[in-house]
Automatic annotation (TrEMBL):
Compartments where located: Cytoplasm
Alphabetized PANTHER family for the sequence: UBIQUITIN CARBOXYL-TERMINAL HYDROLASE (PTHR10589), UBIQUITIN CARBOXYL-TERMINAL HYDROLASE ISOZYME L3 (PTHR10589:SF24)
The protein's enzyme class: hydrolase
Organism the protein comes from: Nothocercus julius
Complexes and interactors: Preferentially binds diubiquitin; the interaction does not hydrolyze diubiquitin but, in vitro, inhibits the hydrolyzing activity on other substrates.
Catalysis: reaction(s): Thiol-dependent hydrolysis of ester, thioester, amide, peptide and isopeptide bonds formed by the C-terminal Gly of ubiquitin (a 76-residue protein attached to proteins as an intracellular targeting signal)
Gene Ontology biological-process entries: protein deubiquitination; ubiquitin-dependent protein catabolic process
This protein's name: Ubiquitin carboxyl-terminal hydrolase
Family: Belongs to the peptidase C12 family.
C-alpha cells in the first residue's frame, strides 16, 4: 500500500505480536508510528464522550505542527490512520516524485481538519489505491456503507509528545511526553488502556511503522 502511494520502502508496517517487553524487542527500530485496530463498543463510546467533555473543560496542549484530519468517509479509518502516521513523519519519509500521497499532504497542509476530510472525499488517487489494496487482502473489503464496529487510530510522536489521532474525535489527544527511544513502549501503554477498558474483548491489533 505504501509503495502504491509513492513512498520508498525504507519504512514498513510490521505486526506487534504482543505487548510484553520480549515481543516488543522483536519490532525493528526506530518506530515512528503505531496503528491500533480496536472494537467500538458501548464501553468505549461512553469513555470517548467523557474524555471529550473532560478535555474541553480542562484544555490540553496540542502543537500546531500536528497534522490531524476528520473522518467523513465510512470504513476509511485505516486509510486515515495511515495518512496520520505518514503526515506526522513526512520529514522522515522518502517520496517518489509523482507520489499521490505527497501531493495530497502538500495540498492539504494549510487546510483545517474538516477541509482535509472533504479533500480526501474527492481525491481519486488515494481512494483507488485504498480499494485495490483492500481487494488484494485475504478478507473481502467491507462496502462503503456497511456498518463496521472495528476502528483504526494512529499514535505518533510530534515534538516530544505522544498524540492519539482519531478522525472520529474533534481533536488530537495528547497522552504526555515521549521520545524517539521510548515511543514504541509509550504507545503500547496507551494501547493497553484501550484493552483494559474492554477486558472481555479480544479484537485488538497493533502494527508499527518501523525502519526497514
Amino acid at each position: 500500500f505504501l509503495k502504491q502511494l509513492g513512498i520508498h520502502p525504507d519504512w514498513q508496517f510490521v505486526d506487534v505480536y504482543g505487548m510484553e517487553p520480549e515481543l516488543l524487542s522483536m519490532v525493528p527500530r526506530p518506530v515512528c508510528a503505531v496503528l491500533l485496530l480496536f472494537p467500538v463498543t458501548e464501553k468505549y463510546e461512553t469513555f470517548r464522550t467523557e474524555e471529550e467533555e473532560r478535555i474541553k473543560a480542562t484544555g490540553q496542549d496540542v502543537k500546531s505542527s500536528v497534522y490531524f484530519m476528520k473522518q467523513t468517509i465510512n470504513n476509511a479509518c485505516g486509510t486515515i490512520g495511515l495518512i496520520h502516521a505518514i503526515a506526522n513523519n513526512r520529514d522522515k519519509m522518502n517520496f517518489e516524485t509523482n507520489s499521490s500521497l505527497k501531493k495530497f499532504l502538500e495540498d492539504s497542509l494549510s487546510m483545517t481538519p474538516e477541509e482535509r476530510a472533504k479533500y480526501l472525499e474527492t481525491y481519486e488517487a488515494i481512494r483507488v489505491t485504498h480499494e485495490s489494496s483492500a481487494h488484494e487482502g485475504q478478507t473481502e473489503a467491507p462496502s462503503i456503507d456497511e456498518k463496521v464496529d472495528l476502528h483504526f487510530i494512529a499514535l505518533v510522536n510530534v515534538g516530544g509528545h505522544l498524540y492519539e489521532l482519531d478522525g472520529r474525535k474533534p481533536f488530537p489527544v495528547n497522552h504526555g511526553e515521549t521520545s524517539d527511544d521510548s515511543f514504541l513502549e509509550d504507545a503500547i501503554e496507551v494501547c493497553k488502556k484501550f484493552m483494559e477498558r474492554d477486558p472481555e474483548e479480544l479484537r485488538f491489533n497493533a502494527i508499527a511503522l518501523s525502519a526497514a
